Each structure stands twice: as structure tokens, then as C-alpha cells.
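Appendix B, example 12.
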Amino acid sequence: MTDIAINLASNAVWATMVELPKVGLLLPLENMKLWFACSSDLKVPGINFSSMGALIKSLRQTVSVRALWRASFAFALHDLALQSLVPRVTSVVTDLVTIIAGRGQNDSRQAKPLSGWQRFLASVTIGTTSFFVSSLIALPLQSAFVHLSTDILSTATYSSLPSFFLTMVREHGVSSLFRGWQVLLARSFVLSLLRFAIRSNIQPPRDPLMSGVFVFGILSGPDVVLVPFDALLQRVIIGPKTVSGWAWCSHLLTTKCPVRLYDSFSTVLVINAINALTTSLSAYAQTVLAPNARRVSSEDDMDERD
């Protein structure tokens, strides 16, 4: 019991240290990205979705700039859920694929090396399954974030995360919390393809100052493909509940301009630039602090010997 309590406490401290800066700095950009993606479906009087500057100005004139921090709790929970689920689900799926393929630990000596085609199939299968299962489990939290965030004027009947879940289940059923799972499946497959291509052909730079450029490219390149899936999922989530998610997805793709799915791309680039900058600063700090730490450690060892 003591070990469990310590583990929970350490996870809580880690989550607080990670999520508080993310909620404080990135949540406004995440909300703007969501609003731009759904701008053609949102009908909010007085809110200008033409640009980031116009949006902030219209928020200041109508509700408040604090609206940029809407749904912070749902955002943090969804982000934490994905961070916790993806590695664990990936480990389980990898073990299952290994067993199914007859490559258990006992057979590792007799197993032949995988061919390129077999590695591709294994990577895509593991990636698609793990991404989809993790995202599907966390989808109710993502649905809550999308609904609470897009309710800019607070006109909906739910005012908090628990009230949202109660209202949605009571009025539309549990299935309404999983709207858009078809888009998640397609996104997971595409993401696994992109991850395999990146890992097979691109090596991270050794220069810490170039790590930021590398991260920006690694994030922004796949986002050219992934942003439309994210926007489509968000628009399906807030779509009319009387229409099935699949039918509404088909409606959005066939009757509305698919180019509108890129309305949030400029905000995505800003988020990627911030992530790249923090990565570069972190790598630079490690190069500066690590030699100093080794020098201090060696001096301490010399003192102990003396």
C-alpha cells in the first residue's frame, strides 16, 4: 500500500509540473486552433474568426480574454490520459503481436530477422491499434473538451465536466461520447504510416541547437496530413446528435469545402514553433549543465579520495 501511495503521489506531482505550464501557455493556442477548425460550424455573434489578432480583439469586446482558457480541466485530463495510455497500450499490443507472430522470448534465438515488409506490417499494425485504442478510451474527455471549449458564450446547459457527461448521457446516450471514432481509426492508421516513414528515413541531429528545427519539421510535416483529420473529428463531435457521426462526416466531406479543414493550420505552426523552441532550449541547457555536473562530481570524488 505504501508503494502504491508513493507512486500515486509522484504521478500527481509529475502531472502537476507538466500540465500546469501546458494549460497556462498552450491552452489558449489549443482553444484557438479548435475554434478556427470549427469556425464554419460555430455561430457565435460578435466573435471574429478571421485571424488570431481579430479573434482576441473580438473576445475582449464581447466576453473576455479569459475565454481562451476555457475547458482547462478537460484539456489537462485528456492530455494526461493519452500520455499514460499510449505507452502502456503500445506495450500490450506489441506483446500480443509478438505472440501471434510466434516470436516469443523463448523463440528469440531461432527467429529469423524480419524483412522490410514484415517490419512495415508489424509497425503499422502496432501503431494503428495502440493509437486507436488509446484515443478511443480518451475520446469522451476529448469530446468534453471540444464541447466545453466551443461553448464560448456559456449558453449550453452544462457548466462543468461532470454536468457535461450527465447531460450528454441522459439526452443522447453513451454513444454520443464516442462520436467520430471512425475518424480516429483513419487518423491512427495514417499516423502509424507517418511514424514508420519518419523513423525509417530520418535521424535526429546531434547538434542541440538544431534539435528545435528538427522538432518543428517533424511536427509540422505530418501535420499537413493530420490537421484535416483533427478538424474533421472536432466538427463531427459538435455536429447534430440526431445525425450519426459517420453520416455527418460524409456530409462535411461532400457538401462543404474540404479546404476549410486547414483553417487552424497557422495556429498549429505556432504551437509547433513553441514546442521546437522549448526543445532547443532544453537541449542547450543540457549541454551547458551536463559538463558542469560532471566536473562537480569529479571534484567531489577527488575530495573523497583526499
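DSSP finds nine helices and no strands in the chain. Residues 190 and 225 are 8 Å apart (CA to CA).
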